[in-house]
Every structure is written in structure tokens, then in C-alpha cells.
Predict the 3D structure of the following.
Amino acid sequence: MNKGALLVNISKYIKLGPDEVSIFNSFWVERTFEKGEYLLRDGDICRYDNYVIDGALKAFYIDSDSGNEEILYFAIDDWWATDMDSFSKQRPSMYNIQVIKKTTVLQINHHSFQKMLIEIPALERYFRIILESYLGALQRRIIYSNVCDAESRYYDFLDTYPTIASKVPQYLIASYLGISAEFLSRIIKKNKAS
Amino acid sequence: MNKGALLVNISKYIKLGPDEVSIFNSFWVERTFEKGEYLLRDGDICRYDNYVIDGALKAFYIDSDSGNEEILYFAIDDWWATDMDSFSKQRPSMYNIQVIKKTTVLQINHHSFQKMLIEIPALERYFRIILESYLGALQRRIIYSNVCDAESRYYDFLDTYPTIASKVPQYLIASYLGISAEFLSRIIKKNKAS
DNA sequence: CGTCTATTTGAATGTACTCAAAAGCGGTGG
DNA sequence: CCACCGCTTTTGAGTACATTCAAATAGACG
């Protein structure tokens, strides 16, 4: 049973007893999604917290004017892919989560999530800690997007997320970086020469 | 004693018993900083978690090339102003926190913070919840900075943080929005006419 | 091999920036 | 009360980074 991946992750931060582990396991459900399927659509409430075991997801906002999708983040193995704002407050999400390539996730619904935290209070600590980390990453991203030009941002992305870069088409990376696919293509070409 | 402000905030999310309240109070120290003073400098480790009771702070990154400061966020009454990444991992920060106008904060150092969470585990839940909220705000900000032009971002900022807008000079807001002070001035001028 | 999607290229354009300088504004001291 | 100083905002002119649109090419997959 693949819930191990999540438990391994959790055990880096907190220790759970055997009873807690089995309670924990009882809450999570493994599900597999095919390419193109949606885990979340904008306007809907994010019903599940998703932990990716294997595959690749994209989270993106659809610009109502242009119809373009703007990538907010990618999620691959051992990442969370949940609109935390929508999930925690159970209010409509402003973005979408869709499968890039066949993906297996562990899911828990909002009600179960609350129940799980009451039954295993130690998990509060785990979620606090990973939120802190994610927050740091987001702040860093905001700084970089204001300070650095597209080229530095691209190479920083390659350094920071080499695994994602190799799993995801170039035009989605461009969108993540906040630039057009054409412009990223030019950046890459420019640096092939040198 | 002004720790009330923080306790009021906390009590919106969790309930603390009288004993816990007094333990809680024993951990936090009130301090006042004058305009221009630093609560954190880049390269230093963020030693304190800061809760603003009154005043205004700016968090900013200094671009090593241009020497420009790029505003990451502002913090006013009843906001947190801490580099969570640096504070939680006790590693050097990449940004600065400085006083815009005389500010009173509640502080707790890293060691005490850990101790406090062990003595009052219920607080894990509070911090998890506020991190979730802050995360939502940051994700929204990233979406807007990619999707919207400078003008919409400015008016969204005014809507979202009217109090900050009135406390902070225009050129700092420009920096927060990721544009130059001159360009923001032009945006404002353009809309005075209509 | 053909179809569909992704990437590349070219040309014209726009949004936002830089630099330099002027104007406004608030406080302080003579 | 006015002059001066420092700081913030405004204006002008030239520029750069990144975009759009259209079309050509390259890759992937059945």
C-alpha cells in the first residue's frame, strides 16, 4: 500500500505511534487520474487535500479576458496539490488543478481532514511545518519575479526544480515564469550558441 | 498589557484555558522600534517572530545589482512580520524588515517559540490556520502579478489593503507592485482625469 | 505517413523602465 | 514668516524587455 510515501514524508517531521499510523491510513484514499482529468475546477470548492504519489499535475488560473491559462504551480511525486485557501475555508477556488500525465494521489476530504487532526493532534505540527516551507518558497518566488529578468528566472527554475523541468512541456514552464512560450524559446536559443 | 491584541486574534481560531493564557503571556515580550530601525537584516538569522500591535513595517529585498529595494510585504496592526523560512529553520534571511513609522511589536525568540508550542500544543493549530490564510493570499498575489497589468494590480491593492495604502508612501507601493515609482505616478495621473 | 501538438522564427508593437530634471510638500531654523 | 532642506512625486524623452500575431518547422504518436 502506497500511503507509505506520505508517511515517510511525515515521519521526517513528527513521530507517530503504531495506532496513530493505522488511524492515519484509514483516512486516506488512493486514486488515479488520467491525463487531462481535473482534480479541481475554478468556481468549485476544493473538496480534497491531494498528495501526489506519482505523476504530474498543473495548477493554473484562467484569465477571463484572454482565456489564457497562467500556471500557478506544478506538483509531482511527493508534493501537495491543493488549493489550501479553498480547502481550508470550503469556499470556491479561483484556479484549476489538472493532470499533465497519469497521476496517482492520496486524497482526504475536508470533513475527514478535520476529524483526522482531532484524532491525531500531532499532525497539526506537521502541516504547520510544511506550510512554513511552502511559504518561504512562495516569498522567494515573488522576490525573484520582481527583481530578476525572465532569463534568470528560467535558470533559477531549472536549478530549483530540475525534475519538474524534465517532466513538463516548455510552454507550461513559460507560463509558470510569467512569460510567453515564444519568448522562452528565444531565451533558450540565445544560450545554445554560447 | 497589550498582549491582548494577539490573544484576541488567536481566540478567533482556538480556545485557550486561563492557565494556557498566562503561560502564553509569559513567553511574549513587547518592544517598540523607531522609524528606520531594523527588525531583520538580510544575511542574519531571523531570531524573533514578530506580531505588530501598532505601527508599520516594510519587508524588502535588496537587489545586489541595482541596489534597489523591492518590497515583499508591509505589516501593520495585527499582522505578522517574520521571515518564516529563516525563523523556522534558523538560517540566514534573504530580506530585511525595517520600521516605516514607530512600531510596537510582540516578540518571541525561536527557542521560546518551540517551547511554547510544546507547552501549549493547541497553538500548532492556530499557526497552521493563519499560515493557510497567508498562503492563499500569496498565491492570489502571484496569479495577479502574472495575469494583470500594473494598473489593475494597483487598484486591487487599494481594495485589498486600504489601510496600508493610506499609511505608506507611494513609491513603496510601486515597489510592492513590482513597478517603478514614476510609472505608478503616471497610472494615478491618467485616472484623475476620467 | 499523416495528424496533432509543441517549438521556433520574424516583424511590428506595447508595457513598463531608466535617467535626468523639475515641481510639490513638510518640517526646521533663522 | 520666509527660506532652505530633504524627501516624495511628477514630467519628459529615449529605451529595453517582453508581447502579439502569423507562419513555418519540428516532434510525438497512432
Q: What stands out?
A: The two ends of chain A are 49 Å apart (CA to CA). Residues 169-171, 181-182, 184-186, 188-189 of chain A lie near DNA strand C (CB under 10 Å from a C1'). The longest helix of chain A spans residues 122-147. Chain A has a mean pLDDT of 94.
